[in-house]
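Worked example 3. Consider a protein that binds iron/sulfur cluster.
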Amino acid sequence: MAYCKSCYRFRPTKPAATANVNASPAVAVLCSYFPNMARVAPKNCVHFLLDALQRRRYTCIGPTIRDAAIVYEEIRAEQDLPIGYTDEQEGGTYRLKKRDDEARFGYTVGPQSWKQYLFPPSTLLMKAQRTPDGFRADAHIEQTPTYAFVGVRACDLHAIAVQDRTFLKGPYVDPTYKARRDAAFIVVVNCGQAGRTCFCVSMETGPMAKTGYDLALTEILEDGRHEFLVDVGSERGDEVAQEMPTRPADDTDSSAARRMVDRAVSQMGRTMDTAGIKELLYRNMEHPRWENVASRCLSCANCTMVCPTCFCSTVEEVTDLTGDHTERWRRWDSCFTAAHSYIHGGSVRPTTLSRYRQWMTHKLATWIDQFETSGCVGCGRCITWCPVGIDITEEVRAIRETDRGKGH
Ligand code: SF4
Ligand code: SF4
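Given these inputs, the predicted complex is written out as structure tokens:
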């Protein structure tokens, strides 16, 4: 392995064997925006990718259509992908539409994220059984699933990194998250189009992934051409790539892939000015905009459920009717529920105003103090899936335009 002197990324120095017998063994250590050692695979390469991953006993999780949305579920074959479909998104709106091509990844992000596989909505923590000698408690040790995530967008890769800080750093490491995260194989798909609610460029999280993956694909769709640029990000990614039919990429291929990503940049539907955002929110805790947004917000918690970085949870004890058996479950919760901030004697955040303010200031300000990163990656899900179309970028803009504490 060696570092590329151009992009400062770790690169294999040996040529990857390929299924293409005519492939050149030439290898360059230098790479440009897309590395010279990237390879080009045909449009049906996901078929070979899934085969290679399944041979390694990965459960492949990827995009597929269910309930008129693109969701992440187990995919066993290339035909499970949303081939020829795209999504149209706006505040409070999501629609699937047919494309006029056979794009495998011609959509942005749907209602789900990868967090449901790394931080499951329900986790059994322990169970206890009454015995003649009293209750016997057993910690629940799950058999860790080995997932390969196929189709991870750059913003969601950043969201995984944000959750890594929450669950893996510091004195309390979450064992469920750690085991699943350590086992996961990540196949990124760089975006060739952006949605109306995307703003990853503002958050510097996309639309192209730069590190933290095993393989990165860029789907090239232009002038009748339909291929993938394949970039290797790890040794195990290299091993899998060797089982896909590829040829070495040249400058033309890299330029074509670059044009796809540039197109996504140009289509970005939203922006957020993040300059001094932490201080902006801290000095506007009493801004009248909070009342405005509270008058529209339903406290439904949708935004927190779809957000790939939100991690609030609660712990429940469940007993059977006999009282002989009890289980302790961790379940997703939301800062939008009154119960989540219930401390002795009542809820600390009894109003919708206080809950929305808590959520947005945590995402964009206190998260930075806690975890040295923003809690928002600009995926736009909270805008699309808010039933009344509340838009976090618009709320920031409104506060910035009437910043009450500016200059104080
Ligand atoms: S706050 Fe909204 S835009 Fe930001 S990461 Fe969460 S869901 Fe995505
Ligand atoms: S901002 Fe929208 S999605 Fe979030 S709690 Fe309020 S109404 Fe629900």
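Take a moment to read the result before moving on. The pocket of iron/sulfur cluster (ligand 2) is lined by residues 297-303, 336, 386-388, 390 (CB under 6 Å). The chain has three domains: 1-35, 36-266, 277-401.
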